[in-house]
Predict the structure.
Amino acid sequence: MIRQDILKNIKRVVIKIGSSVISNKDKGRSALECGLSKDWVRHYARQIKLIQDKGYDVVLVSSGAIMAGRERLGLSRADLSIPEKQACAAIGQSFLMHTYEKAFEKKDIKVAQILLSHDDLGNRRRYLNAKHTIEALLERNVIPIINENDSVTVEEIKIGDNDTLSATVACLVDAQLLIILSDVEGLFNRDPSIKIKGEKAELLSHVARVNDEIERTAGKSNNKLTVGGMYTKVIAAKKTMSFGIPTLVVNGLDEKVLENIFSAKDVGTLFWSGKGKIRDRKHWIAHTLKPAGTLVVDAGARKALVERGKSLLPAGLVKIKGEFEFGKAVIIVDEEGKEIGRGLVNYNSRDLLQIKGMKTPAIKKLIGKSFYEEVIHRDDLVIF
Ligand code: GLU
């Protein structure tokens, strides 16, 4: 029932294709020797054409650049240096696009490449620019194919995995559904690769809330070919859910999976709370900006933020971690280290170290003209 309801109400879908879904690992190669499988790319071009014909807008987020580049350079070592990986991405990305272009051409569909970096998404103007470009493409029935701009992005500021990127893109384009095509069936109640006699791991069909237990269940990835594992998928779903977008994690190696999804069959794991759309700008603060530091707050401030919807004041600050400037995004945690929310700061970290725990009149005296009552104003604050 839930799946049918979702399908009835969607117009725009983001589909993330993982490297392992379009790899030629079926030809008996080890994960690191895999290259791009033209057959799988063609298969998905055909499937996406069917979805487009049903009237849906489709945006693709495709991995596979590094994998394709590795194969072309014959680099199957596990320990590639960063410049080597970036070289692979540069070579592989054009090959990946060429392959998509050829496959979609057969179906009379044009495609467009968009390479995004964290900087693009973290800057409001560039974020909106990307959004407008994608809108203009969709209006013309062109399929945007998005990847991270791996060859020029410095490791420390990378988005890092395309699960996260696809969640950001789903929010960016106001999609009503994110489909993550992976090489596993979905999220299981425990690691299905560990065999326990007489106890089968069960696939979770619906997750209404990503809590600590779900995050723990997702564990970390050990797949050599891909960056993300179930963990990054669950975190991506948490993001989209907080923006009111349902996310499906399904097995993309099942050729029928998209057909099954669009005929409301119960495949994969659906992450969907059924509610909770937060405003666009707040989503950007909470999920797109990279936090530059952490503020530890006391129990009183925690209560004011969580239960009373107040701004964060200097009096409730216990500790400041990291160095940051005015206007940066920071994480707010309680004294146990549990994340409460995120927001944009009105003070740099040096000033905060001075004024933490202080009351307004004393701060006014110390700071003078550039004084702000709030460390983070509630309009710039997202509480989870
Ligand atoms: N952007 C990387 C690539 O195209 C993939 C990252 C990922 O697998 O999540 O190779």
In short: The pocket of glutamic acid is lined by residues 19, 63-67, 89, 147-148, 150, 161-162, 226-228 (CB under 6 Å). The two ends are 28 Å apart (CA to CA). The longest helix spans residues 82-105. The CA atoms of residues 346 and 372 lie 7 Å apart.
